[in-house]
Amino acid sequence: MDKIPILRMGPFLLVTIQIDLYDRLAMNLESDLVQKVHQTGARGVLIDISAVTIVDSFMGRILGNIASMTRVLDAETVVVGMQPAVAITLIELGLSLKGVHTALDVERGMALLHTKLDLSTEMADDDADDTE
Amino acid sequence: MDKIPILRMGPFLLVTIQIDLYDRLAMNLESDLVQKVHQTGARGVLIDISAVTIVDSFMGRILGNIASMTRVLDAETVVVGMQPAVAITLIELGLSLKGVHTALDVERGMALLHTKLDLSTEMADDDADDTE
């Protein structure tokens, strides 16, 4: 199986990464996700990496890429379920996952997305020229 | 990775099957799921098999087992995202997935679970001696 399924849950997309992200699989995931965000008009992407035990700079870069790509399509990306060892490795590798939101589990990730989306709507109403 | 992550989403648990369910993996999934239902008091289990392209009688039996096990813990199981080819194979193998609910995708599966849970609560209120 060389495709990671992308599940639609209301305004969000959910991806569970269970296998090592090799080059082709990661590229497929990037393009599939961006297309799916475009098709569905999703406002948020949740990437569950609770099954990922080994992480390298490639994986870090892929997560960063996905976050940047979805952001230009007006969707926020939240990485959830990171194992403590993975967090340690990422920081030791000097990868701070800039631009990627994180949360402890899917539920908190969804709550974070809801807050972000509400906030960004309010901010747009209150102060339209506020830029990031 | 010899564990399939189980994600908690409110009163439901979500499992995405992305790799072939070999014996040990399937047994682990069964016991993990049953334990998680017990721990969390989940009322429904959603199993996404949209990435599964090949199915055999073992897989059919595992899905049936999971549904039976969770039912005795008062949780309903819905299998979602089945590929048309998988549906054809299952029926041709004579496996009708008795006791397993199915839905087209996760969203419809969740809607089905919500309906089932509401209905079963109402039925319990209306007519406590109604048995399946």
UniProtKB/TrEMBL annotation, chains A, B:
Q: Where is the STAS domain?
A: 1-113
Which InterPro entries does this entry report, sorted A to Z? Bact_StressResp_Reg, STAS_dom, STAS_dom_sf
PROSITE patterns from the entry?
A: STAS (PS50801)
CDD domains per UniProt:
STAS_RsbR_RsbS_like
Q: What is this protein called?
A: STAS domain-containing protein
Organism in which the protein naturally occurs:
Larkinella bovis
